[in-house]
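Quick one: structure tokens for this chain, please?
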Amino acid sequence: MPKDYINDYDATAGNNTDIGGVDIDEGCAPSGINNAIREGMSHLAGFKTQFEKGANIASATALPVNVAGMYHDVTGTTTVTSFAAPTNDTSHFKILQFDGALTLTHSSSLVLLTGANRTTVAGDTGAYFYDGTNWIEVFYNLPSSFDIANVAFINQLQTFTAAQRTTVTALTPTTNTYTPTLDTSNDFSATLENGVSNTMANPSDIDAGCVGQSGDFIITQNGTGASTLAWGSYYKNTAGESFTDAIGSTLSGVTTYSYRVISATHIELIKVGTVA
């Protein structure tokens, strides 16, 4: 195979018998050496472009990064699902600045650091490496306009200057039984089934990692016929005893219970009250 690009060169010296089609094998013509030097210099000049700023790249479903240069601005807002594979004369490492809002789609061929799709903001910069099969995101930097002071962290003392609200997850019963999952929400709501005995089961995913979690159960009495509600064995009153409560029978009345996870088998539950 002709050695037309540096990427074609062989690590075994004896296998390099030409350069850009110029014969440099044993016994080659003397003129071939001069021509090979010139050809090699042109290859080096071409290789140099792989480390320079290249032309802007218009966003496309398959982003055409197989162009000269290492650093590019990506224009437009078209969703990107893949990067084009590099050629022998284009870089296997790309630094891309996104000039607008577009979606990068995470996949096995475009592996993003977050493991999920990403929406870019003007000024975002990402670095990507081609491993021979897939493009892998190795770095992603937010723009200078990004206000780090207004980012919430889970391991620092912070003061919030606006309300922080959780989503109330509506529970759907299976045979009159409601089963919360603590990993999905802090607060839960349920509307009791008509005229039957209902059960709030122990959370399906409770473990030691849930200790300290707190929230509310917001229970609405059925609007047609009053129902009862029993609680799973993990729900305890403040004395550590099994929780029991005669939920209000007023049709469509709303009763709120607050909870705190004490252990993987103990959820302290307090009845806040009922609103008719």
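Residues 168-275 form one domain.
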